[in-house]
Design brief:
alpha+beta; single chain
Length: 151
């Protein structure tokens, strides 16, 4: 299913699919780093434009993400900080974020999905590309409830 990401990426990029209106705001605060915990360290991600990524979670998502024994509560947030692919230590500026927040419904795998630019503008929301890719990794052992990798 990961091949689909690469096959469809040019079409989505050119078509502006899932662009957000001016009133969309990120589901995470600008001060997220003060309360979120890193659960996956700096690494390459072929599924995120070859960026380097770190995965962080808010307090509500910590145990469900790391232990995988309880459900994510409504409102829980899983966030990827994305860095330039040459930033092997993920020490430079964040160039964008991808984030998922648990919803109370089954729509879109039960999550809201956002891509957020460095200026904190929401560039996409509920992008079908995110949802399609995460559909394939919603079960153990390699995924849990739409999250795609073991911590």
């Amino acid at each position: 299913m990961r091949w689909l990401h690469f096959a469809l990426a040019p079409a989505f990029a050119l078509g502006g699919v899932a662009a957000c209106g001016e009133d969309a705001t990120p589901v995470f605060g600008a001060d997220y780093a003060a309360t979120f915990t890193e659960v996956r360290n700096c690494r390459s991600s072929s599924d995120h434009d070859l960026h380097r990524i770190k995965v962080l979670v808010d307090p509500a998502a910590h145990d469900p993400y790391t232990l995988r024994t309880t459900a994510f509560p409504v409102g829980a947030i899983v966030l990827k900080e994305e860095f330039d692919f040459g930033d092997t230590a993920c020490a430079g500026p964040v160039i964008e974020w991808t984030v998922m927040q648990k919803l109370g419904s089954a729509e879109d795998l039960g999550w809201i999905w956002q891509r957020v630019a460095a200026d904190r503008s929401v560039t996409t929301e509920n992008d079908p590309l995110c949802i399609t890719c995460h559909t394939s990794c919603g079960i153990a052992p390699d995924g849990y409830d739409g999250t795609c990798a073991m911590p």
